[in-house]
Specification:
Layout: E1 4-8, H1 29-46, H2 50-55, H3 62-74, E2 80-89, E3 103-115, E4 123-134, E5 137-142, E6 167-170, E7 174-178, H4 182-203, E8 211-215, H5 219-226, E9 236-241, E10 254-257, H6 259-263, H7 267-283, H8 293-305, H9 312-315, H10 317-324, H11 345-362, H12 365-375, H13 381-389, H14 393-408
Parallel strand pairs: 1-9, 7-8, 8-10
Antiparallel strand pairs: 2-3, 3-4, 4-5, 6-7, 9-10
Protein name: Peptidase MA superfamily protein
């Protein structure tokens, strides 16, 4: 089995979306009470004030209260620099009436948090919380009622601390938040610490120079964090989530590890995966919707394998088998070829790697990194290739096909 490492565009840590309905009037009584309650709840998290945290939770919501008590404890080691809530709207979707007539509303909320010493920008996720009124006071009463509006996309994003007590391991260039054994988490940190200097050497500075890794204990937990089907990611060793688009400030990337696939890798394979993922962190500010996946994934593999000493057939065995069978690809991999369920996923990665390595070898490594940054600015790929390499897309593809056949035939 080959395990892959991928980058995911958009903020996959954000679950749910704003759909339909009208926001409650700004300053309304319910909204004002909700904002006050959320502000008190956020302050309790930041100040590790368990009493204040539980004071905002409905005493009659015993199951929710018990779960939230565990979540509070699960957060104990997480080095939070900021934690806040923004009320998007109350009345996000209808809730069924209660037997005792308790007044309730479903609130759409955005949670923002930053990790101390690592996040230049916050991670933002969406939650749907049930608020209940008893007497004159509003309480948090649930976060599972989003299932009522699931058909409309009203789902609360799952966070690592929702899944168990979070252990924290710090490396020279890394921070690992995980649910597994400390020894396993230390291994992730050690591999990331080796990866950062390699990536800095290949892609330069201008990025944070550190990596935050989230390490759940199971594939199902990883899938829950990404809001994907576990079966679609069983061969994916790790995923980098973050916000692309050339933002002025460094985004808060997360490398999320699939412990099942990652654990089957050799020491060399594990190092390749985390170097690949660290490259995605480094290139995030230079990655936009204009960047084809063969380039973003190819550069990440180029950095990961650059000094490996492995031959092309060793790095690209699936594509090599195709070439020897007379199935040399006629075009560069498409973005669809990089879907986790694509039948030619391995060949897509290998083809992207060979394309990027060809640029580095036939032009220069500096040309490759400059081309990567140029593509993110927009314009056609053909025009960017002509400006950077002096040849258009058709000739580049022809050279790439020849290189694939020469390297793997």
């Amino acid at each position: 089995m080959r395990a892959f490492a991928v980058a995911v565009s958009g903020v996959l840590l954000v679950g749910g979306c704003t759909t339909g309905g009208k926001k409650a009037a700004a300053g309304s009584g319910v909204d004002a009470a909700a904002r006050s309650l959320l502000a008190q709840h956020a302050a309790a998290v930041l100040h590790h004030d368990r009493t204040a945290f539980l004071a905002g939770i409905d005493p009659s919501a015993t199951s929710f209260r018990a779960r939230q008590s565990k979540v509070f404890g699960n957060l104990a080691e997480v080095p939070l620099a900021a934690w806040s809530y923004q009320l998007v709207r109350t009345g996000a979707f209808p809730l069924p009436p209660t037997a005792d007539g308790t007044r309730r509303t479903a609130a759409e909320v955005r949670l923002s948090y930053r990790l101390r010493g690592y996040d230049a920008r916050p991670v933002v996720s969406t939650a749907y919380l049930t608020l209940a009124r008893h007497g004159t006071r509003w309480y948090l009463a649930g976060d599972q009622d989003g299932s009522v509006g699931a058909a409309g996309g009203h789902r609360t994003a799952v966070q690592l601390w929702d899944q168990g007590p979070v252990r924290v391991v710090r490396g020279a260039h890394s921070l690992v938040l995980g649910l597994g054994a400390a020894r396993t988490l230390r291994g992730y940190a050690d591999d990331a610490d080796k990866a950062v200097p390699e990536v800095r050497h290949a892609f330069g500075s201008g990025w944070p120079g550190s990596v935050v890794i989230e390490a759940p204990s199971t594939l199902d937990q990883m899938a829950a964090l990404l809001a994907v089907k576990p079966a679609d990611y069983q061969d994916i060793a790790a995923v980098t989530t973050g916000e692309g688009g050339g933002n002025a400030a460094a985004p808060a990337d997360r490398v999320i590890v699939n412990p099942a696939a990652f654990g089957e890798l050799s020491a060399f394979g594990r190092q390749v995966v985390l170097t690949h993922e660290t490259t995605h962190v480094a290139t995030r500010l230079s990655t936009t919707a204009h960047t084809p996946l063969w380039l973003s994934e190819g550069v990440a593999d180029w950095v990961a394998y650059r000094d490996s000493g492995r031959t092309a057939p060793e790095i690209a065995p699936e594509l090599a088998a195709d070439v020897k069978a007379g199935r040399t690809p006629t075009a560069l991999p498409t973005d669809a070829d990089f879907r986790s369920t694509a039948g030619n996923l391995a060949q897509a990665y290998e083809g992207g790697w060979l394309a990027c390595r060809m640029i580095a070898d036939q032009w220069s490594p500096e040309t490759l990194t400059a081309f990567y940054r140029a593509v993110a600015k927009g314009g056609t790929l053909d025009a960017r290739l002509r400006a950077s390499l002096g040849i258009g897309l058709a000739e580049f593809t022809t050279r790439w096909r020849s290189s694939v056949e020469q390297e793997l035939g």
